[in-house]
Amino acid sequence: MSVLIIAEAGVNHNGDLKIAKKLIESAAEAGADYVKFQTFKADKLVSKSAKKAVYQQKNSSSVDDTQMSMLKKLEIPENWYNELVSHAQKNNIAFLSTGFDEESIDFLDTLDIPFFKIPSGELTNKPYLIHVASKGKPVILSTGMATLSEIESSLAVLIKAGISKDKITILHCNTEYPTPMNDVNLRAMITIGNLLAVNIGYSDHTIGIEVPIAAVALGAKVIEKHFTLNRMMEGPDHLASLEPDELKQMVLAIRNIELAIAGSGFKEPSSSEIKNIQIARKSIHISHSIPSGTVLNNAHLVMKRPGDGISPMDIEEVIGQKTILDLDSDSKLQWEHLEK
Prior knowledge:
Elements: E1 4-10, H1 17-30, E2 34-39, H2 42-45, H3 54-58, H4 67-72, H5 78-90, E3 94-99, H6 102-110, E4 116-118, H7 126-133, E5 139-142, H8 148-160, E6 168-173, H9 187-196, E7 199-204, H10 210-217, E8 222-226, H11 244-260, H12 277-280, E9 283-286, E10 301-304, H13 315-318
Parallel strand pairs: 1-2, 1-8, 2-3, 4-5, 5-6, 6-7, 7-8
Antiparallel strand pairs: 9-10
Helix pairs in contact: 1-5, 1-11, 7-8, 10-11
């Protein structure tokens, strides 16, 4: 199965339907499997006193430092959704959104989305996890800020509430925007997979495309990456997002990596390189002209391309043999040139 690539538009629509549609078009053009937004009601997500994260403060010119004021502007109105889903269908990309509360999950379920994406912040929200599981759909769970024991607890809640383990994918993640490279800890993704015996993936907040590509090489089956139309746009997530050309490069690189690691694992010449074996390898040649009856020694021999004569690996069988005809300099030695 191909790696599932989720282009995370998130809140980078900035409350503008036209921008949201352009994000869908960009994700589709890049070749992503899904374009994902975020579904929430600010007053159900945060209290009026909740402060912005440091990265949110840096990426906003607003003097108001509350999450409420920021998120109110980034809510997607319900009357947008049918239009967004339809626009995604027209552009041959699947629509997805992350619900941040039970009511949002119920609403998204009416849109017949194929699975639920649980954000890192809800990993310890037991009532929410149970509600998601009650829908009976596959789940992708992000794990930013989490310990292994917390992930294990969340996984147990989902399974007890009715989701089989094979329908759960756990994404390693770091919830800092952007994530410093020395904090990525990509090997933790492998640990999660090995210790919890689950499908694994990676949700990336680093700058650039190399880490998600590396994650695929290490076994990730799902990649999620934020993208924007322009990193210079105002908003909390733009600076840690890819621009359209970068998203396209990431998708292409992941598809290439998939092909590169999809081989049998058995080391043998590939169909494309067989034709080059004789061209690139060497065979035993005569270093200078010698008469018939010469007993061959190392001084008579030189290893040169092409490799369609006697292999240099058989040189011990050639040394000490007597020639049965005159051989010119640079001629390729054949077994029939030697006395039987």
